[in-house]
Write a structure and sequence with these properties.
single chain; 417 residues; mainly beta; Methylamine Dehydrogenase, Chain H; five-stranded antiparallel sheet; four-stranded antiparallel sheet; 29 strands; 40% strand; globular
């Protein structure tokens, strides 16, 4: 079976051509060189096969579960007991094309989202030999992302918010994952491709990233509440900010993640080709009128496609945030940490790019492609380079204590261990 990325290649090339002569967003500062004041130090590395597209990762206890886009490469189980020497100890799900994985560590449970709309729950009592508990097929064959939300008032209640990027198809599905043996799709709606959804830890406020219409803020209690689901999300207009439209260019609003304790969201724009994507800080104090207050674009962006750089080049993908830091997987640029204490001037303070890398390009990706939502565990950063494997990094620099003290944090769930 072809993967979603492979099947979208002709579309990606066409969109790249459409955006090739457009300008950067007015909010973005000039693409000047930057001098990081902190550092990302490699602690460990688990090399994985370079001829695939490693994409999703979950961590439960001392084991990571790394997914892929091809059927012929099973999910890799990585032992993290020694972060300096992560080691492959097993595999699972050999016949699936993985979209995303999520773990609920205290329940010893793993959820796997695969192409075809399949969600499978596994028991991790034996972390090296997961046992299937149940599965459900939802009403889409092209799921793209899944945000995992756990009710802080009732921890046994777990929801999966699954998006679809297929144009003209229903964009969001809400699946109740609470009982792994009887998972059910509770709601499906929005006739527009939705790239990502995230929800505040308490379930009150949500952020939706559309394909081409920007980022919106919505009342998430319409989804997270225990009663019938009746969302009032609009996909344009009130509650939306659309930097793509403002700049008359084609781009994808990829991810939007709240900044804990502050009325801010970090938003990444992924652009296929030239010019490339950028990152924005959006003030959501007034949800009906979110305002872009700061932005940053990589100084190396705008280079044409090559096997080294790939289609997404020096653009961002997925963020994980603390009160004053944004940790962002940034495709060809590797992993980047930003000081967002002043949201009007997000400042890169540390970067990491592997010195040893895949020797050729692969599909839409170049020789380096940092893609996963960074996971912070016990003060270390775990992140996937889709071409070169799993990296374990330590950040030193401004506000490092916000990472040092974290037991677990990821951008695509409200999980806090």
């Amino acid at each position: 079976m072809r993967t979603l990325l492979r099947s979208l290649l002709p579309t990606a090339l066409a969109l790249a051509a459409c955006g090739a002569d457009t300008a950067a967003p007015v909010d973005a500062p000039p693409a000047d060189a930057f001098q990081p004041t902190g550092a990302l130090t490699k602690i460990g590395h688990a090399p994985l096969a370079a001829d695939t597209q490693w994409l999703g990762m979950a961590i439960a206890g001392d084991h990571a579960y790394v997914g892929h886009r091809w059927q012929d490469s099973p999910v890799q189980i990585i032992d993290l007991h020694d972060p300096a020497a992560p080691m492959k100890v097993g595999t699972m799900a050999p016949d699936l094309e993985i979209v995303e994985l999520h773990a609920v560590a205290d329940l010893a449970r793993l959820y796997v989202l695969a192409t075809g709309g399949l969600v499978i729950a596994y028991d991790l009592a034996d972390p090296v030999h997961p046992v299937e508990l149940g599965r459900v097929t939802i009403s889409t064959v092209l799921p793209h992302e899944m945000y995992l939300w756990r009710d802080p008032a009732a921890p046994a209640r777990i929801l999966g918010l699954i998006t679809s990027v297929a144009n003209g198809a229903v964009g969001l599905r809400v699946v109740d994952l609470s009982d792994p043996r009887a998972m059910t799709e509770r709601w499906a709606g929005f006739e527009q491709g939705i790239h990502g959804v995230s929800v505040a830890a308490d379930g009150t406020r949500g952020f939706v990233s559309t394909l081409y219409s920007g980022m919106g803020v919505f009342d998430a209690t319409t989804i997270t509440g225990p009663g019938p689901i009746a969302p009032t999300i609009q996909t344009s207009g009130s509650g939306f900010v659309n930097s793509c439209r403002r700049q008359h260019q084609t781009c994808i609003t990829h991810s939007a993640v709240e900044v804990p304790g502050r009325p801010l969201a970090v938003v990444t724009y992924e652009n296929e080709g030239v010019p490339e994507g950028w990152m924005e800080l959006v003030d959501v104090t007034t949800p009906a009128t979110p305002q872009v207050v700061g932005a940053w674009r990589h100084p190396a962006s705008g280079q044409p496609f090559s096997p080294d750089i790939g289609m997404f080049g020096y653009g961002p993908h997925n963020p994980t945030t603390t009160a004053h830091l944004a940790v962002v997987s940034w495709y060809r640029a590797g992993l980047m940490v930003f000081d967002i204490s002043d949201p009007t001037h997000p400042t890169p303070v540390a970067t990491f790019e592997p010195t040893k890398r895949a020797t050729d390009g692969f599909g839409l990706w170049g020789q380096v492609a940092f893609v996963s939502y960074p996971i912070i565990k016990d003060g270390l950063i775990y992140v996937l380079d889709g071409r070169n494997g799993l990296y374990v990094l330590r950040y030193t620099g401004p506000y490092h204590e916000e990472l040092d003290g974290v037991r677990f944090l990821e951008g695509n769930s409200n999980r806090r261990d």
